[in-house]
Structure formats: structure tokens, C-alpha cells
């Protein structure tokens, strides 16, 4: 049966989700704050609104009467989602999940206090003076993040006392003066970071994708690879934590659950109740279903018998260095000459420094993930955006 799906946020992750839904015969309305966002280019209908305006959100929901509401970003008046859920609409994965994960305090308190999973030590601050006190309690180095932000926006590493005021300023610019609250985290000397893509089903068991390794710069993902190296004991602990947190939040869909791996332990870091940017590596055919197909099947209630790792893969982002409109891409022909690779251009109409404009992919059954990472990076380097 065809469902009407209202997609709130229409970036590159939403675009691949729309494609997956259309292949299953669904009708998608893509919403974002600007016209011609990537997912709008492939959706049946689109709307341009400020999703932080509750009345505008109510208007769009009333206009389209969706069966499912699928948030793709955090910047939404998520408290409104509870009302839509009460009206009988399915919020993906759930209104509670969307509301809790928009605010780092809610999800961290749930994980550390209620569920008692291992996280970095943390404190909160709502003023510069509180930040100074919290940093001194946590110790140097430490990490400061706005309570409400995504993709590393406003995140800073404080190495000594001279960095504190700059970190406070960066957090304020990310979310605005009125909402300037931060979390101060212990800096974990981790060996690697991983994402466990976790799929919760309406009428089936929770499933896990093979672990994904990733590297960040400026708090944002630069490359990812699958499978990531992890001991069986650490993998079991990570999967147990992922299942515990997703069960507490409820609903069906895919979740990107992030962890720090030390030599002997696993620390819960963050969680996104939607396809994850590091999971774009699954577009390299690493699994029998990529993360967007898994999300679509899960939210529609279609059974997923199993998730199989088919081959190794790696992804590397294609960035732009300057601000402008109507971007021009070069090097596509050269990039297409690399064997066992692919790339996706997202179709964003506007550029700005370090904006993610595409992704390069590499895959193979015999090559190591290190070899594939190098190949994906070469493809990404070949493509220029101006």
C-alpha cells in the first residue's frame, strides 16, 4: 500500500532515502529551508519552510496529511512531533527519539544516568563562568559542544585555559545567543571511532550492520570504511549498548550509534535516529541493502530477514573551498576511470567553505579497507567543485 511520507530535511541523506522509497512505490514530500535541496530534486512534491517555526510545520502537516513523518535533520520543532503522533501519524523512528536526540543533554542523560552505559565524563554549562568551572572540573584537554547542533558545528577542543573563551564563542555562533548551552566532555584517548548502524523493526528483531570506521575533521566526517577493525568483545558490548538505547527511545528505522574505542573498552558517544553520514559507505555495495534501503523497509514495516556484508568498502567526501552559487564540477571523466569505484554528486545549489558536495566510493572483496580508503581519497581528490 502506498504511503504519503513527509521528509523533514532534504539533504544528501534524504535524497538517497527518497530514491529508496520511490523504488518501493511510496509518495514523498520533501521539506527544507531552501529551494532545490538535494532530496527535492527526486521527490514527488516539495515545500520550503522554516522547520523551527511550529505554526509553519503544523500548516504543512495539515496540508499534506502524511502517513509517516521522517525527520532528516535535528533543526525541527521536535516537540510538535508528539502531537502528530497522537493524531495517528507515524513519526520515524518515534517522537521521543527525534526530541531526545535533538538535544545532547536529553540523550546523554538517558544513556549515562537512566541506562547507565559507559560515556565520557561530562558536565553542562549555560554561561562563560559556568564553562570555566566545568572545564576545570573535567580537566584538560576536554571537548565543548553546543547542546543542540549537528555535523560538528560549534565543537571545540580545549587544551588549556586560553581556549575557553574561544570555545564559548564558537558554540554561540553555532546555535545563537538565545540557546547557548554546552556540554563539556572528557577527552577520551581513543584508538578509533566507529558507527554501529542499528535497525529496529516493527515486527522483527533488532539488526546490526558491520561496524563502520570513520575519521573526522572540524567535527565532521571526512571518510568512512566498512568493516572497521574491532574485537569480538568490543563489538558485542557496542551492539548491546546500541540495542539498549534504541529500545528506550522506541520506534522503527535505522540509527547511527557512535562509539569511541580504547584499547580495552567501548564508550557511547552519540546517536542519530536516521541514516548516518558515515553510513554513505554502504552505497559502495558493502551490504545486501544499503542504509537508506534498510531505513525505508524498516519504517514501512517490511521485514528484513538479515543484513549481510557483501564486500569491503570506503567513502571519502568531496568538499568545496569557496562560497558561491551554481557550482561547476570538473574531473568527473578522470574520476570515472578508477576501477571498482563510484561517486555521487549531491546537487546542492550553493557552496561554502568545507561544504560536502559529493562522496567518492571504492569497493572490493580482496582489497583491505586501507587500500580502499586510499583509492576513494584519490577519486575524491580528482573531482573539483568551483
From TrEMBL:
EC numbers on record: 6.3.1.21
GO molecular function annotations of the record: ATP binding; magnesium ion binding; phosphoribosylglycinamide formyltransferase 2 activity; phosphoribosylglycinamide formyltransferase activity
Pfam families: ATP-grasp, PurT_C, RS_preATP-grasp-like
Residues bound to ATP: 104, 145, 150-155, 185-188, 193
Amino acids binding Mg(2+): 258, 270
GO biological process: 'de novo' IMP biosynthetic process
EC class of the enzyme, as a word: ligase
Binding-site list for N(1)-(5-phospho-beta-D-ribosyl)glycinamide: 12-13, 72, 277, 348, 355-356
Domain ATP-grasp: 109-300
InterPro entries per UniProt: ATP-grasp, ATP-grasp_carboxylate-amine, ATP_grasp_subdomain_1, PreATP-grasp_dom_sf, PurT, PurT/PurK_preATP-grasp, PurT_C, Rudment_hybrid_motif
Oligomer and partners: Homodimer.
Function: Involved in the de novo purine biosynthesis. Catalyzes the transfer of formate to 5-phospho-ribosyl-glycinamide (GAR), producing 5-phospho-ribosyl-N-formylglycinamide (FGAR). Formate is provided by PurU via hydrolysis of 10-formyl-tetrahydrofolate.
NCBIfam families: PRK09288.1, purT
Protein name in the entry: Formate-dependent phosphoribosylglycinamide formyltransferase
Organism taxonomic ancestry: Bacteria, Pseudomonadati, Bacteroidota, Cytophagia, Cytophagales
